[in-house]
Amino acid sequence: MTHRLALVLTTTVASLGLAACEDNRGAPPKDETAGEKRSIFRPEFQVEPIEALDPQGSLETRVQFPEGADLTEAARAELATVLASPQIAEGGAIVLRGHSDSGGSDDANMRISQQRADAVRDWLVENGVAADRITVIAFGEQNPERPNALPDGSPDEAGRAANRRVEIEIRGKVEAALDKPPTLAESLAEAAEKDEAKADQPAQ
Questions:
Q1: C-alpha distance from residue 133 to each of 90, 92, 178 (Å)
Q2: Burial letters 66-96, b for 16+ CB under 10 A, else e
Q3: pLDDT for 138-193, tens place per residue?
Q4: Is 203 a member of any domain?
Q5: How many domains does one find in the chain?
Q6: Pairing relation of β-strands 134-138 and 165-170?
Q7: Can you list the alpha helix ranges (DSSP code H) found in 26-92?
Q8: Alpha helix ranges (H) inside the chain
Q9: Would 131 be classed as within a structural domain?
Q10: Residue 36 covered by a domain
């Protein structure tokens, strides 16, 4: 009995010793930032995700008119940049939206906004853009970019200057592929152009 008890005790002590000496060499070291997403690249090499890049999207810009409907040198420079854009080369549809401030009557503001958009269209056509790509819409004073008046009711000259503009949109391949439906204003403008074309045709 004494010999057997000694054998059991020796085996138990040996097992406890092995357990006490065991280390976690096979387990990875604890990560203090567990749960955080980490990149294998250094920050200076990070780039935007592909989804954020849209080289074939639409181009939107504008030209301003200090007064009247004459193109300034700054406006011509902006149009030259538009003319050199990939969207122009792709052949996408062009929408020109003419605007005015609220300084005149409704009819006068509608006319001047039309004249401004027409001036931009004429410049583009004179420089090689097909006229049938271009839709012109006149809004008059309906869609101001900034308030036309100050809180006390006096004219806000800076705001009015910002409102005398033509907004240019050139739709790229992505928009064309989606077959984007026209807005109500675009539909009305197209219908008016068709009616005008019919009126110009000789009677049968």
A1: 11, 7, 17
A2: eeebebeeebeebbeebeeeebbeeebbbbb
A3: 999 999 999 999 999 999 999 999 999 999 999 986 544 445 566 677 777 777 77
A4: no
A5: 1
A6: unpaired
A7: 73-83, 86-90
A8: 2-21, 73-83, 86-90, 106-126, 157-163, 173-178, 184-200
A9: yes
A10: no
Tokens representing 188? 């009305």
Interval 29-83: pLDDT, tens: 555 544 444 444 444 434 333 333 344 589 999 999 999 999 999 999 999 999 9
Instruction: Report the C-alpha gap between 99 and 164 in whole angstroms.
Output: 6
CA distance 193 to 190: 5
Specify the DSSP class assigned to residue 155: B
Q: Which residues pair with 168 in a beta bridge?
A: 61, 96
pTM reported for the whole predicted model: 0.60
3, part of any domain:
no
